[in-house]
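agent> Task received from the user: take the single chain below, predict its 3D structure, and emit C-alpha cells. No templates, no multimer pairing.
agent> Plan: (1) validate residues, (2) run structure prediction, (3) serialize to C-alpha cells, (4) report one or two observations.
agent> Step 1 OK, no nonstandard residues flagged.
tool_call: predict_structure(input=
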Amino acid sequence: MVDSRTVGITRYQAFCALLGAIGSFNFGWNIGSVNIPGDVLQNCVTGHKYYGPFPSCIDVSSGTVWGVIVGCYALGALMGAVISNYFIDRKGYKFVLTWFALCNVAGALLLSLTTSVTQFLIGRLVVGVAAGAANNALSTYVSDITTPRGRNVLGGGVQLACNLGIMLDNAFALGLAPPPRWRILLSLTGVFGLVNFSLFPFASESPKWLVSKGYLDEARESLARFRKGADIEAEFEEI
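)
tool_result: status=success, residues=239
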C-alpha cells in the first residue's frame, strides 16, 4: 500500500477544498458587490422610485459616509479574523467554516432588505465578519487536509475562487445594478452562505487539530478519509 505522504489529490480532499473555496468566492463576491451599483445606492441616479415598502436607493448624501459603508466590510473582516481564533482553538476549523457562514445569511437579509444607511452599514459589517472568519480558517484547513503534492493546486484554487467571486459579481452587476434588482445581487451572498452551512458538516475536521486536542482516534479516522486507499501510519506518527 502506498505511503499517504506521497499521494496526490483524492476526491474527498477536493470536495472539502471546494467547500472552502465557496467561502473564498463569497469573500470576493462581497468585495465587488457595491462597485457597479454604487451610483444607484449612493446617489440615487434613478430618482426616488419605490417598489413596495423598499426604496430604490438609500440616498447617501456624503461621499465620506459611503466610504465608511464600503470600508466597514474590511473592518468586519478584521473582527471576524480575531473572533474566529477563539472558536478555532476550542471548536475547530470545521465549526468556524460551518457556523460563521450564517453571518453571510444574516448580512444578506440586512443588505437586500435595507431601508436606511445604518441598516446597510451593519449588513456590510456582518458579511465582513463572515469573510474574515472564513479566510482565517481556510488556509490552514486546506493545508492540513492536503498532501504536499496536492497542496499547491488546492490551496491556489481557494485563492483563485476569491478573484472569481469579484469577477462574477461585477459581471452579474451589469444586469442587476438598476433598482430593485441590486437587492437580488446583494442577497446572493446569503445563498452561498447557506450552501456552505449545509454542506460543510459532511467535511472532516483537520487531523492536525484533532491530534493537538488529544482526539487521536478521530484524527486517525479523519486522516484515513483524506488519504483513502493509502497507508496513513507514517504520516499519522509525524502529526
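agent> Step 4: summary for the user.
Residues 47 and 139 are 44 Å apart (CA to CA).
agent> Done.
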